[in-house]
Every structure is written in structure tokens, then in C-alpha cells.
Inverse folding.
């Protein structure tokens, strides 16, 4: 585990219309670790996650103030290309949304839209092999290798979410954002996703939002605890779960509230 | 009878009366609803019965494929009118679909809600303008523009191609008819197109954007791929609307009963045929029957397109 | 590298989209502009208050009062007749019909009727008139317009009634009211403004339509005094007088077009205002 900081959040404020959803958030996301954002519902976890890949601004009426530094560069700075940021940050959504194309095309989508497949060819990389690689990483290859051209909508929920994982990883992001990625899945599929996340964290920094405390305990190296839009506590998982500094943290992680 | 029995009798009578009223209301409303159900077949049957005499007098093949239209001699060849309708309608759609779809995409995917709330009502206004007013605009603006500007230019540059060859001294031609018709169809395709695009779930867009796609890439590769049956249905609905449009086109299209060969030829669509000749139709045998037959053809074509488009739309919306 | 290409593509498409939207809106303003440009100079008090004199092909004097009054009679008549039929059908669909097959079929039939071209309604109306022994007349026009407006009005009313929350209807039934009583005392009161909007929408469509009254209402220079005589209408006033090579007659056509457009736009605006204003008081 490295000691580097991948993302730094400084004085982040977010408004939905007139109501403020996030208040002066300051936090750090360590590199190549799994950071879990936890807290009771409505506390702003998903909002915080979506400011990281600037997907929040797609919702009309939202306003963001503050800085989010990715490797030292403020993603909200002037002249920053949003699509570039989003390529460096992958996203797994709560419900799987396979694109309306074949399994192969889903995984290849990211590379195609960035014209990377031509660059790959120049580097001697084969798109077929890239697709296979990431389907393996997502733990889906064995199940789909003989029907790559079949529509992705034919897969089960769990398979679809793994496909979305392969799709997100295929653009080789530096950070993977997981927004309650297993909440819509059956326990077995959820477990398989968790396994894959553990496998990839050595290459990809992971930030996950979850309302399942047990999942956070299982997976997290680092924790951010939000309460009603404010950051209450943050630190290494072992400390936050076992020796929380704040009373609210203690109450939440012991299941007394939320 | 005791007081109590008297009261109960009255209450029972009142309740019976209320139930009877309800039953009567229900029966008459059901009857009216059934009437509405029967109205379309009724119209078709009435037109068919009225056109029977010409169907008997002239073989069907001559009616549909014949090119001679001389009611005084009993010649009723509908081909020029059918083709005229097809030319004007198809060209109108070619002109209308790209701007309409682009506008629908802009409003649904790019515009802010406030802009949408201002623009959509204005576009709806277009839909409410009466057909004859479109005709006036067509006569005053479109016909001179096409006749004096577009036709000479295109004839000079592309006149070798029969499609663009101009032998018509006026601007009363298919192109003028199609331009007017295209504007009439805009609000339709824009409205249905927007609805269809909204039906695509937001999560799908987010999935694409999160991978770093631009908004247009998302629209083209994801939204459109998902929404194309609905868009097609919207276009077909616009087509069926254009088919039946009468007055505006009639006023600018020239009304010459010949098979068209160029967009600058005058044409004579079916609705215009019916509208122009209703006054004389009683004067010659079978004339009225022929015009009723034309109305029947129009009804059947519009019906077919309408039902097909709605079937596709319903099934597609359900699958979203 | 490819990113720049994608951004260029995005900018280009945005430009095209904006251009299309402007073209669409621009055509609207062009149409309204033409109508006002030609219609406004033709407007004066005589135009609005007199009927054409000296036969309408050659007459230089007089105005379009015949068409204005005629259109109002036709459209109001047609709308009232349509209301008598549309409201019960809409109530049937929403209150009595439920999810049955018949209800879906009726809704489909209404959708289909909505798409029938107005010239077909005109031809059908003509046949109905013949069947009833009528000649081209105010009554014939009213009947045909009623057919034309029926699907539009019923659909609007259907939607209006569907907005009444089920809980409200249930509260009434729970107190032992019959369905009909619930309709009158609860539903209609709630949906009043929305129903009115549906009526106005259909009215606007009916008053502007030419193809349906062409066969069935006839034309005349006079103000109608009987249901059985022919009647002038604004759309036909435009249609017949536009092509006549006398400028004075054409002036009447432009004036008719302007008045018609004003009436239709005003109806549309009023119905929009109504529905937004009065729904403030509705329980949701």
C-alpha cells in the first residue's frame, strides 16, 4: 500500500437549488486503496462521489464551489476538459445500465469513443485482447466468451454489473468510483463484485459509497464518514471502526443510529 | 304503517332511484362510447358504399394505375393523384425530418428546462395555425421564392437531372407544396421526438458520460440506438399527418393532373382533387363516386400508417 | 488527439441543432409576419362590421362580417354538440370503464379518429347531410365540425379527468355515493378548468378548418339567420377570395386570415393561462 494521496478535496460546497447538500468538505483519498464513504441516507454520500467525476453538473440546478485536486490538478479549474476527467475516473452505478449493444461493444465502447483503438493498433495492442483482458478482470470472461456478439441486455443483473465493471476498467482509469454498486444485486453476485474490487485495488484507486456497514468493514482501507452534509470523521478504517474519535461516528458504526 | 316503516320505505325508494339513475347514466355512456368505436368503420363503409358505382364501372387496375382523368368521358385514372401525393409528402418529410429531429434532440438533451419551457409552447403555436393561413403564407412567400429564386438556380446547375429540371413557369409546384407541408409537420415530429428521447433512462446517459463521452457521442451511440424505433414511429406519424393535409398544399402545388417527373412540376394530390371538385361532382355520372373513392383511399392509407406507428410506439414505450 | 476531434464534432452538431431550432422558430415568425403584414393594412371598421356588397367576386365594398359571424356560429355550434358527446365518453373511460378491453379499444378508436384528415370528415359529413335530406347549411357544417372536434375534445377531457387522484374518488364512494353522483359533485368540480381547456382546444381546431366545411357549410355573403341556409366561414373566406384577381377582394382574404389567426392564437393562449391558473386550487 502506497502512502500517496490521489485526490484531495478542499472546502467543497454543493447546492441543489437553494438547499445546501455538502458543507465545507475537506478530505483526502489515498492512492491505490479502497476508500469507503459511509453515513446515514441523505447525508450526501452520492453527491460527494458525483462531484469527483463531475457527473453532478449534469443534473440541472446544482452548484459546486471548492476544489477537487486529482494528482494536484483542480478538476473544477478553468479550461479543464470534463471528458478527460471522466476518462480518468470510472463509475459503477447502483443499477447496472448496459449500453444497447453487444457484450463486446460494451467493453470496447470507451476505447472506441476516444479513438484509442487506433492508438492501440499502433502500439501493437489488439482490441480483442483488451476486451478479453477486462472481461477476465471483472470475472465475466468464462461465462460470455462464446457469445460476445450477443446483446448485453440478455445477461442477468449480476452479469450486467460485472460487464459494467469491465466496461469502466477498459478505459484504464486511475480511480474507480462505486456508487452503491452491489445494492441491487443478489448476495452471490455482490460477493463476486467485491472480490474483483479487492483484486484491482493494487492498480486502481477505489472510492465506494455504501450504506451497508458490513460491506465497508470488509473492504475499506480508508473511511470518510458524512453526517447531514458535513464531514464528521475520516481516517484509516481500523481506527474509524474500532476507535472512532467522534460520538456520532461511534453511534453509527455500532449500529445505534442510521 | 308505523313511522319507522314509513321512513324505511322512503329511504328504500330514494336508494332505488339513485341506483336507477346511475344505471341509466352508465348505459347511455357505454352506448356513446361504443358509438365512438364504430365511427371509423362507419365512415369507411359509408364512403365505400357511395363509391361503389365507379368501382363497378371501372376495373380496379385502371382506377389505380390509369393516368387519364376525364370525368366527362368516364375516365378515372387515379395514378397522377396518388403519385402527386407521394411526391409532395415524401419530399416534405425529407425536408422536415432532419431539422425537426435536431431540434428535438437539442431541446431534450442540451437545453435547460427553462429554455425548453419557453420554446415548446412557441413551437406548439405553429401546430395551431390553420391550414388556410399556411396557404396564404405559401402563396405570398414560398411560391415567389421557389419560382423566382430556387427554380432558376437549380435548373441552371442541376437541370440536366430530370428531377431538377424546370419546365414550369410559375412557382406553383411540388417543391412549394413540400416546403409548406414540411413546416406544418415540424411541431409534430419535434413533440413526439422529445417524448421518445425522454423515455430513455437517465442512467444510460450517465453510463456513457462517465466513460468520458461527449454529449453528442452519447446521443448518437447510446440514446439514438435505444430510441430509434420510437423516432421512426414519430416520423411515420408525421407522414400520416402530412398525407391528409389539404388546404395549404392545394393552394401552392399547381393542381395539374399529370404524373410528376421533377420537383418543379405541378402536382395534384388526392386531398386537393377532392377539395377542388366537390362543386362539380354531381354533374357527371360516377364523378361523386370517384371522389368518395379517393376519400376512402386517403382514409385507408392514413389509417394504416397511424395504426402501424402507434403499435410500434406502444410496444417500445412498454419495453423502456 | 481524438479528443479534439470529438470536441469539434460536438461543437459542429451543436451549431447544426441551434440552426435547426432557429429555422423552425423563424418559420413561425415568418408566417405570422406575413399574415400581419398583409392583413393589418386591410383592417378597418368597415371590414369588421359589414358584409360584402355587390357580390363577393366583384364587390369592392363591405367587409367580412358574414365570415366572422358564420365561423363563430359554426364553431360554437360544433363545439357544443361535440361536448354533449365527448363528456359522457370521457367520463365512461375514466370512471366506469377501468382497465377493460373495451376501454382500450375505445381509446384506440379515438386516437385513430384524431388522425383522420379533415377532408375525409368533410366527405363523410356530406354523406350524412344527404342522408338527412339537408343541403349545404349551417347545420351541416355544425354536424361535420362536431365529428372533427370529437376526438380532440374527448382526449383532452380524458386526460383532464385522469388527473383526479384516485383517493378522492374513493373517499366519495366510501361514503356510499354512486359513481354518477361522484362525477357530478366531486370530479367535475375538480376538473372544470382542465375540461374547459379541452373544449377550447377543440374549438380552436374547429374554427380554423376549411376542408371539412367546404362540402357541408356552403358559402354566402349574408349573415346566417337559419340553420338550414348556407353560411360563410373565415377559412373559406380566405380560400375563395385569395385567388380572385381583384385587390379589394383579396384584401378581404387577408383580413380574414388575420382575424382567424388572432382568434386561434387567442384561444390557445387563454386555454394555457386557464389551465395554469385554475389548477392552483386543485387538491393533489
Amino acid at each position: 500500500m502506497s502512502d500517496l494521496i490521489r485526490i484531495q478535496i478542499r472546502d467543497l460546497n454543493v447546492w441543489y437549488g437553494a438547499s445546501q447538500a455538502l458543507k465545507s468538505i475537506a478530505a483526502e483519498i489515498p492512492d491505490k486503496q479502497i476508500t469507503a464513504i459511509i453515513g446515514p441516507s441523505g447525508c450526501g454520500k452520492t453527491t460527494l462521489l458525483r462531484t469527483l467525476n463531475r457527473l453532478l453538473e449534469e443534473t440541472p440546478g446544482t452548484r459546486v464551489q471548492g476544489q477537487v485536486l486529482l494528482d494536484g490538478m483542480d478538476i473544477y479549474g478553468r479550461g479543464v476538459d470534463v471528458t478527460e476527467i471522466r476518462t480518468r475516473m470510472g463509475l459503477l452505478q447502483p443499477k447496472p445500465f448496459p449500453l444497447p449493444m453487444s457484450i463486446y461493444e460494451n467493453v470496447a465502447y470507451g476505447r472506441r469513443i476516444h479513438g484509442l483503438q487506433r492508438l492501440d493498433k499502433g502500439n501493437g495492442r489488439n482490441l480483442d485482447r483488451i476486451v478479453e483482458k477486462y472481461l477476465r478482470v471483472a470475472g465475466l470472461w468464462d461465462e460470455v466468451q462464446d457469445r460476445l456478439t450477443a446483446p448485453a441486455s440478455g445477461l442477468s443483473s449480476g452479469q450486467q454489473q460485472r460487464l459494467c465493471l469491465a466496461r469502466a476498467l477498459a478505459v484504464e482509469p486511475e480511480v474507480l468510483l462505486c456508487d452503491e454498486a452491489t445494492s441491487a444485486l443478489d448476495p452471490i453476485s455482490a460477493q463476486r463484485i467485491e472480490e474483483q474490487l479487492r483484486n484491482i485495488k493494487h492498480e486502481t484507486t477505489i472510492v465506494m459509497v455504501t450504506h451497508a456497514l458490513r460491506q465497508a468493514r470488509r473492504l475499506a482501507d480508508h473511511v470518510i464518514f458524512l453526517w447531514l452534509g458535513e464531514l464528521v470523521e475520516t481516517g484509516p478504517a481500523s481506527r474509524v471502526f474500532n476507535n472512532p474519535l467522534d460520538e456520532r461516528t461511534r453511534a453509527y458504526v455500532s449500529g445505534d443510529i442510521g | 304503517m308505523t313511522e319507522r316503516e314509513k321512513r324505511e320505505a322512503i329511504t328504500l325508494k330514494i336508494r332505488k332511484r339513485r341506483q336507477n339513475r346511475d344505471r341509466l347514466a352508465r348505459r347511455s355512456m357505454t352506448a356513446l362510447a361504443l358509438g365512438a368505436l364504430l365511427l371509423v368503420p362507419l365512415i369507411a363503409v359509408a364512403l365505400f358504399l357511395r363509391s361503389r358505382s365507379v368501382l363497378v364501372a371501372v376495373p380496379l387496375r385502371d382506377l389505380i394505375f390509369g393516368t387519364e382523368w376525364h370525368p366527362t368521358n368516364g375516365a378515372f385514372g387515379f395514378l397522377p393523384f396518388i403519385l402527386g401525393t407521394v411526391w409532395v409528402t415524401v419530399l416534405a418529410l425529407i425536408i422536415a425530418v432532419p431539422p425537426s429531429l435536431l431540434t428535438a434532440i437539442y431541446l431534450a438533451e442540451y437545453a435547460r428546462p427553462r429554455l425548453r419551457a419557453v420554446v415548446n409552447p412557441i413551437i406548439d403555436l405553429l401546430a395551431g395555425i390553420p391550414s388556410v393561413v399556411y396557404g396564404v403564407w405559401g402563396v405570398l412567400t414560398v411560391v415567389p421564392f421557389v419560382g423566382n429564386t430556387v427554380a432558376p438556380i437549380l435548373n441552371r446547375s442541376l437541370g440536366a437531372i430530370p428531377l431538377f429540371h424546370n419546365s414550369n413557369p410559375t412557382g406553383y409546384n411540388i417543391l412549394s407544396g413540400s416546403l409548406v407541408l414540411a413546416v406544418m409537420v415540424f411541431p409534430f415530429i419535434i413533440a413526439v421526438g422529445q417524448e421518445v428521447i425522454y423515455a430513455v433512462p437517465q442512467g444510460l446517459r450517465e453510463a456513457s458520460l462517465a466513460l468520458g463521452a461527449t454529449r453528442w457521442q452519447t446521443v448518437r451511440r447510446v440514446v439514438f440506438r435505444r430510441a430509434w424505433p420510437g423516432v421512426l414511429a414519430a416520423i411515420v406519424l408525421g407522414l400520416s399527418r402530412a398525407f391528409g393535409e389539404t388546404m395549404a398544399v392545394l393552394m401552392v402545388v399547381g393542381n395539374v393532373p399529370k404524373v410528376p417527373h421533377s420537383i418543379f412540376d405541378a402536382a395534384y394530390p388526392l386531398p386537393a382533387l377532392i377539395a377542388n371538385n366537390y362543386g362539380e361532382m354531381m354533374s357527371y355520372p360516377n364523378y361523386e363516386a370517384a371522389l368518395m373513392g379517393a376519400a376512402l383511399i386517403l382514409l385507408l392509407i392514413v389509417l394504416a400508417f397511424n395504426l402501424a406507428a402507434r403499435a410500434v410506439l406502444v410496444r417500445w414505450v412498454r419495453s423502456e | 488527439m481524438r479528443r479534439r476531434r470529438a470536441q469539434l464534432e460536438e461543437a459542429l452538431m451543436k451549431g447544426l441543432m441551434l440552426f435547426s431550432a432557429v429555422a423552425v422558430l423563424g418559420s413561425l415568425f415568418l408566417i405570422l409576419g406575413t399574415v400581419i403584414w398583409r392583413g393589418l393594412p386591410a383592417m378597418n371598421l368597415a371590414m369588421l362590421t359589414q358584409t360584402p356588397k355587390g357580390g363577393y367576386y366583384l364587390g369592392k365594398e363591405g367587409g367580412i362580417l358574414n365570415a366572422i359571424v358564420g365561423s363563430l356560429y359554426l364553431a360554437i355550434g360544433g363545439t357544443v354538440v361535440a361536448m354533449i358527446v365527448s363528456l359522457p365518453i370521457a367520463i365512461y373511460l375514466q370512471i366506469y370503464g377501468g382497465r377493460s378491453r373495451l376501454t382500450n379499444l375505445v381509446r384506440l378508436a379515438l386516437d385513430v379518429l384524431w388522425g383522420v384528415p379533415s377532408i375525409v370528415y368533410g366527405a363523410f359529413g356530406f354523406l350524412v347531410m344527404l342522408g338527412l335530406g339537408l343541403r349545404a347549411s349551417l347545420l351541416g357544417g355544425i354536424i361535420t365540425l362536431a365529428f372533427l372536434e370529437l376526438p380532440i375534445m374527448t382526449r383532452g377531457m380524458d386526460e383532464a379527468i385522469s388527473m383526479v387522484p384516485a383517493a378522492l374518488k374513493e373517499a366519495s364512494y366510501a361514503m356510499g355515493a354512486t359513481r354518477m353522483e361522484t362525477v357530478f359533485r366531486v370530479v367535475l368540480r375538480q376538473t372544470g378548468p382542465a375540461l374547459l381547456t379541452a373544449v377550447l382546444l377543440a374549438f380552436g381546431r374547429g374554427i380554423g378548418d376549411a376542408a371539412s366545411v367546404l362540402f357541408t357549410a356552403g358559402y354566402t355573403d349574408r349573415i346566417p339567420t337559419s340553420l338550414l341556409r348556407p353560411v360563410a366561414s373565415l377559412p373559406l373566406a380566405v380560400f375563395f377570395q385569395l385567388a380572385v384577381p381583384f385587390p379589394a377582394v383579396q384584401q378581404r382574404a387577408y383580413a380574414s386570415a388575420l382575424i382567424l389567426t388572432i382568434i386561434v392564437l387567442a384561444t390557445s393562449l387563454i386555454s394555457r393561462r386557464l389551465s395554469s391558473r385554475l389548477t392552483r386550487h386543485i387538491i393533489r
In short: The domain at 5-253 of chain A is CATH 3.40.50.300 (Rossmann fold). Chain A touches chain C at residues 81, 83-84, 113-116, 118 (CB under 8 Å). The mean pLDDT of chain A is 90.
